[in-house]
Amino acid sequence: MTLISRGISPQEDETRPDYANEAVFRRNCLPTRSYYIPETSVLLNGSWDFHLASTPLDAPNANSLNGVAWGKLNVPGHWQLQGHGKPWYTNVQYPIPICPPHVPTENPTGTYRHSFYVPKTWDADSQLRLRFDGVDSAYHIWVNGVLVGYAQGSRNPSEFDVTEFVNRAASNEVVVRVYQWSDGTYIEDQDQWWLSGIFRDVHLIAFPKESRIEDWFLRTDLDEKYENATLHATVDVLVKEKGNLTVKLTELNSGEVLASTKVSVEQSGSVELQLHVASPKKWTAETPYLYQTEISLDSGSKPYTVHQRIGFRKVELKDGLLSVNGKPIRLRGVNRHEHHPLFGRAVPMEFAKKDLLLMKAHNINALRCSHQPNNPKLLALCDEIGLWVMDEADLECHGFYEAIARPLDIPEEVDYDERKKLTFHKAAKYTSNNPAWKAAYLDRMESMVQRDKNHTSVIIWSLGNEAFYGDNQKAMYEYGHRVDPGRLIHYEGDVQAETADMYSYMYPTVERMVKLAKEEGVKDGKFEKPIVLCEYAHAMGNGPGLLEDYEQAFRDHPRLQGGFIWEWANHGLWKDVEGGAGYYAYGGDFGDVPNDGTFVMDGLLNSKHEPTPGLTEYKKVIQPVGFEFSGGKVTLENRYNFSDLSHLNATFKVEEFSNETRLLATGTLELPTVQAGEKGTVEIPAEALKFSSQKEVYLTVSLTLKHSTNWAQVGHEVAWTQHRLQHSKAPTGQVVLDRPSSDIRVISKGSLISVSGDEFVFDFDRARGGLRNWTSNGQSILNADVKNGFAIMPSFWRPGTDNDVPHSLPYWRRYGVDNMASQLRSLVIESSADKVVLKANMYIAPPVVEWGWDAQIDYTVTAAGALIIDVARLTPTGAFPKHIPRIGFNIHASKSLEQVRWLGLGPGESYPDKKSSQKVGVWQVDSVSSLHTPYDVPQENGNRLETRWVTLVDTHSHAGIRVTRLDGGADAEFSWAASRFSDEVIHAAAHPPDLVEGDATYLRIDAKVAGVGTAACGPGVREDLLVKTEEVKFTIQLERI
Asked: What is the pLDDT at residue 418?
């Protein structure tokens, strides 16, 4: 009973519980300090006893746990991912009634219990602390039956002094009661799963009782020439007697001492020290050079020493730009939520490290910790491998927008800035502009800054995300600049940059972004603050498009200092399905209502954190070297901010592309010295450019790492370019396969018209005016699709993408583009000795609406058994849509046509606004299935652009077809896609297991395809990359193999 009396009261305010009191967010917590786990620590992770109650009052009494039906739960982890409750996903909307600070009565409450011992090797009088690095969303802790403290702020650490409650000679028991909902929930409304529990490390830590270093803050400054440096150290010490405090700077690897200083310490408190360092190597994201700092306190019986890695760099606003070490930088970044497909936000560090290595390998140089401080260990990796980091406070209350906007019934198509004007000032009154919440807001800023202040990679603090703007953000800004003036502060919600050190925007069009760069905050042609895009190029599903457009704008307008792609990875959670295949689940898949569905699947990586085509595209677009070829020379533009190109090797090859690839020349290039931001030229050997060829010839130059780094091996490709040296001197379609000619026979019976030669038969449908079947040497090559009776059918539809869903998809469906059928108006047959021509006049139209295509399609069967399809007229009539997904043919081919080769862009998918990462070449896959891009949410995929020819072949009989385009001369190109899944199956599938293979190879051959854009959240397809509904003519040829 004596122990219990030394604990805190069950709640600070007798009238309401701690977890529903905005004024209570820490009770009996120690001040937040720099992340440091000493050797005298015990990691308490592992299997804990666990009990889940539906309300806090139903939770076990921490002082009377006998008879509790305990289960087991892994710590760190979330209880919803271990069989208790369900994951719940919302983007903006709150999943609970909006009445802050109150929370639902049904408030799932998890009670954890764990036993621990104090190591006998620890000093008997040491201070003992329990540290929790992340608990969602609020919690009380008991030690040996004593209520020790309370904390909230899910992604922030809390530390408790438990010295007087611990038995050093026996087993101890810690009990943690975790509340799923708390008043903190209202300001933790980030776009992610609602997941509860102890999801980060738990430590028991021992510190010396009477003489220790409590905390430290290391800052570096550079002189006006950015050459020599000063290391400023603020060290908080606890001493009982006079002693000395020493700060020593050494080389990280050799241990060589570069500078040292010592001061006398007579009392506890903060001590200021300085070290002057001549010409240290500077830290940047490109050159992440770190030193070791040793801080030692010699007071009392034992010296106490801590170590901190530090890099020398200076962050400032200079000439209105975000600058490091005196130079403006370009942010080529990503937003990264903490996510693991099995463990949620309890991400193992090896998994997180893989994320960072992938970023570096894909030319990404900046990380926004969206939308909360990440695992503290992550920042040490960023320091080491080199990433510019925007560290963001655990603060978002976007759901208040819905509370205001829904009653106003504001249409989603209303411009976002207009919606802001109507709602944001009202939404801010709930918490952001409410004095009662000021302390809670400040706590979240303080927790982030104090924990992460010693990480060199952190150059920007962010006040949070989508929390409107009010006095509480202003207070956070003032705290940040007062405590840490050496970093800039970001907040997108501060639209006018009243306090923020930069203007920040989400998902603007390129045109609007450029206009802002020219006008926002500009006076007399000058500006004081830069512009960054904290979110852009929404990477949901098949996308993002438009990356080249954004990057070009960044290059053209230095004030636009880049931004952060939304986002790094899909958040799918693995869901087993009884008796079936599992899948990566999204909102609603767990019965979570309300939810925001697939909006959690919007990353450059899939849910397993494997790259999607979007990441491959981003790597190419942001490559740090630009190329331009002219007159036998390649001009290199060094787009690094600090590095020259001496760390790269250059190679070239000259290739001829036709039916095969022929290497004409290859070699290495001696790169000139090209400083950051400068240009240099390298000459391609003259003999390599002296070739004799009638085919297409391309030069490819590749830049690779000269030496291995801590993020990639030697030979890793950093940048490349491809330049066409010569066009083909003969049209691709004139490369006729070596097939004997034969007499052509035409047999007409009922609705069937059979056109045949010695080794081939084409069956046409007289009633419908199209091809039913094609056989070669007795093997079916093309056959009729049971849905429409055609083997080849004009088509303007494809499955939707996530980016189509908000606007284009309903627009196309409104016009019936997904439900078009043909009407034959006339069919004329013309025969000659070497060919038969069937001229079909058709009207292709949907039901309900009054528009369609007036079409004349001429099918020519040659004596060699080839089929030429000439779209002689394709004219829209009536009230037609302005744009459609594509114009081409659906071809229903035999499933045995398995091996695919093509000359064109590859090896991956490409679209008009997402093609930079693909190279021209002769590519081959042995399975049609491998052409499918396995997006977590099935959708349109696998298109290949700029194709000269494509073949599909049966690997057993070697029979197949070769497709070319005849109109357009030597540069005739087309797009194509081949799949095992029909358009209907892909479009209807909610998850990959819903994809059922058809008994066919579904081939698309297109004259035009639309781009993909980013309209799931952002601008749609650029106007000139839409497929306009207008008159079209084109001709394709299918030859038998």
From this structure: 84
Model confidence band, residue 751 (pLDDT cutoffs 50, 70, 90): very high
Give the ranges where 453-556 is alpha helix by DSSP (H).
471-483, 510-519, 547-556
- Which DSSP letter does residue 396 get? B
Q: How many residues in the chain?
A: 1041
d(CA 953, CA 441): 64
Burial class from Cβ neighbours inside 10 Å (0-12, 13-18, 19+) for residue 400 reads: buried
Query: Would the pLDDT of 738 be above 80?
Result: no
| pLDDT per residue as tens digits for the range 698-732 | 999 999 999 999 999 999 999 999 999 999 987 66
**830: Cβ–Cβ under 8 A, 6 or more apart, which residues?**
836, 837, 838, 839
846, 819 contact by CB (below 8 A): yes
Residue 718 CA to residue 80 CA, distance in Å, equals: 41
Sign for the CA dihedral angle at 666, 670, 672, 678 comes to: positive
More confident residue, 101 or 833: 101
Residue pLDDT, tens place only, 151-163: 999 999 999 999 9
Report the alpha-carbon distance of residue 862 to residue 867 in Å, rounded: 7
Tokens matching residue 1038: 């299918």
The pTM for the full model equals: 0.97
pLDDT one-digit tens code per residue, 798-814: 999 999 999 999 999 99
The answer on pLDDT for 415 being more than 90 is no
CA gap 859, 64 in Å, rounded: 86
SS3 at position 51: strand
Mean per-residue pLDDT over the chain, rounded: 96
Cα–Cα dist 107/185, whole Å:
12
pLDDT, tens digit, for every residue of 824-836?
Answer: 999 999 999 899 9
Is residue 519 part of the annotated active site? The answer reads no
At residue 578 the predicted structure's pLDDT band, cuts being 50, 70 and 90, is confident
Catalytic residue among 384, 392, 535, 940: 535
| pLDDT tens-digit map of 340-391 | 999 999 999 999 999 999 999 999 999 999 999 999 999 999 999 999 999 9
Contact 773, 842 (CB under 8 A): no
DSSP β-bridge partners for residue 533: 505, 563
Assigned token pair, 152: 């909230």
* Contacts for 617 with CB less than 8 Å, ≥ 6 apart: 544, 547, 914, 915, 916, 917
Helix (H, G, I), strand (E, B) or coil at 498: coil
CA torsion through residues 487, 488, 492, 495, sign? positive
- Contact predicate 864/961, CB 8 Å: no
Whether the Cβ atoms of residue 863 and residue 835 lie closer than 8 Å to each other: yes
- One of 466, 492, 655, 898 is an active-site residue; which one? 466
Phi, psi of 153 (to 5 degrees): 105, 80
Distance CA 28, CA 380 (A): 29
| Nearest-angstrom CA–CA distance, 231 and 229 | 7
Give bridge partners of residue 661 from the DSSP assignment: 657
- DSSP secondary structure letter of residue 352: H
Q: Residue 902 corresponds to which tokens in the numbers above? A: 């093509």
Three-state DSSP state, 419: helix
Catalytic site includes residue 466: yes
Phi-psi region of 332 (alpha: psi -120 to 50; beta: other; left: phi over 0): beta
In angstroms, rounded to a whole number, what is the distance separating the alpha carbons of residues 202 and 212?
22
The C-alpha atoms of residue 15 and residue 13 are separated, in whole angstroms, by 5
Q: How far apart are CA 797 and CA 818, in angstroms?
A: 6
Cβ atoms 159, 131 nearer than 8 A: yes
DSSP labels, 567-627? -SB---EEE--TTS--EEE-TTTTS-SS--GGGG---SB-TTS-B-HHHHHHHHHT-SEEE
Alpha helices (H) along 520-570 = 547-556
Q: Are 986 and 510 in contact (CB under 8 A)?
A: no
Q: Between vectors from CA 906 to CA 901 and to CA 911, what angle results, nearest 5°?
A: 120
